[in-house]
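pasting for the record
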Amino acid sequence: MRRVSRIAVAGVATAALAVTVSACGSSSSESTSSGSGGSSKGIGLAYDVGGKGDQSFNDAAYAGFTKAEKAFSVSGRDVEPQDGESDADKVQRLETLAKAGYNPVVGVGYAYAPAVKEAAAKFPKITFGIIDDNTITADNVADMVFHEEQSSYLAGVTAALTTKSNTVGFVGGVDVPLIHKFEAGFEQGVKDTKKSVKVKSQYLTETAAEGGFSSPDKGESAAEGQIEGGADVVYAAAGLSGQGVIKAAAAHKVWAIGVDSDQYSQSALAKYKASILTSALKNVEGAVYDLAQSVLKDKKPLSGEIRGSLSNGGVGLADSNPTFKNNTALQAALKKAEAGIKDGSITVKTS
């Protein structure tokens, strides 16, 4: 096993695929064979709440999954979550993938931490990966985490230099430490750039089970309130719920800043794209692909903490929108801010 602290850069993309029903959720492919190591059938992927089609976090993982399938000529299996599921359900899902011979097996989201820890102990020959959690210490587990606060800082710089009302908004899906990083970085970026700008912040739910990451209607309602309060740029870190934030921004002709995937380029959001200024990217696609490559091609499975940052391309801002990309004053400010983060002269808060 080798322990690393960086991930390679990979472009962010997304795709959609019809799903079929299996005993532990819905999956894009079926398998009944079993195994506990050795020759791998391909990558196993278990989605977080919101599932495939969120145009954000889960779809970024799916993009890495499909890229690995093509690159390494394997057929993977991806499995959807179920409403109201327990940790035991997650354990069963991961163990089903491991028994079927999939390696690596990836849990998408911090909620998989207890399940990954348990399943990895039972299947030591299988490499497990988890996105957004670094609490598991095991030779066969890769903890794939990110400096979300850094890209969020750049989103804050963008918001501060774009707002005309001097009020911007932040919508977090669930009130948890991970999303606090997004909020902290964003607010610091705003205030460091223009102290007079007011930041309105709101979390949709206290727990993921209440739908904070999977309820576009909740996101839309929160954004509506912030826009009515004067916000003309709204940044969402809320998974599927962020689609509602983008919808509200488009309806009121203000700016939205997306998250995780380049949401300006998502086909499902095409009718709103004129209102998506940029997106704070998190290279989940690259993390999933790199883990698959380490197992399926290199035969040297990654393990330990693997953290994406501005310095290694693991986080950043999308520049697909010409309005954003061609704003020379904004780009100069972002370049300066990014350099400061990289050289340590700017320390971005995480809470």
